[in-house]
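This part of the workshop introduces the protein records we will be handling. To make this concrete, we reproduce a full record directly below.
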Amino acid sequence: SPAETSPLSAEEQARQAEEAAREAAAAAEAAAAKAAEARARADEERLDAEAAAAAEEAAEKEVEDAAADARRAAEDARSAAEAARNAADYARRQNERKGLARRGPYLGLGGFYAPEDLENDKDFVVKSSRGLFAEAGYRVHPNIAVGVRGDWLEGFDFASDVVEDGEIDGWAGTLTGKFYLLRGSIQPYATLGLGVIVADIESENRVTGERRDDDETAEFLRGGLGIALALSEYAWLTAEGAYATAGDDLDGLDFGVLSVGLEYRF
């Protein structure tokens, strides 16, 4: 009867409700499990992304370090090449200087102007002279040469109230040393020579007409400065300024020697 079945229906309904609750709880647990799995996958993917980003950053750092090493290597290579060029240039200059200042014989020829500085009375008029020279020697050291030089004087013309048509001709021979300051294509030097001078002194007395011709020999000293300019490895242009003085019977025969010449170095 209806009165007897109602409690059963309520129990059934309770059981069904309990069953539904269990199913809902199971569904919730399954959903929670899926959510946890999804979170785990998301965390794993995030970790993988972070690892990938770190790996990419490390790779970029390695590339930058490699590029910096390459730049340093290139700079070192340029520095080494520059040093090699400088060393080659230095060696070339040294070889050139060694060739230009090499030991060996030499010959020279030239001319000179000799401004007079003779000691005489104030009424004595002297004209300057000129002449030719020749020299030969040997470069015994890159900075030192020794040789002999011969100078021919065309003549110092002189006159006074008593003497007319006076002339002093002569030649000089000296043992000469040259001391070079540089070894390149421009070689300034100091020179010193010691030897003898032979002078032929001719004069005529204005009053008596007497003519004299005297030969005198005396010690001779010449010193000065010069410069040699390379025209080639063998040919040189020389210019020199010196002062010369005689002693003994020719004391007072002082004059300058301004020379220009050509020199050949074997």
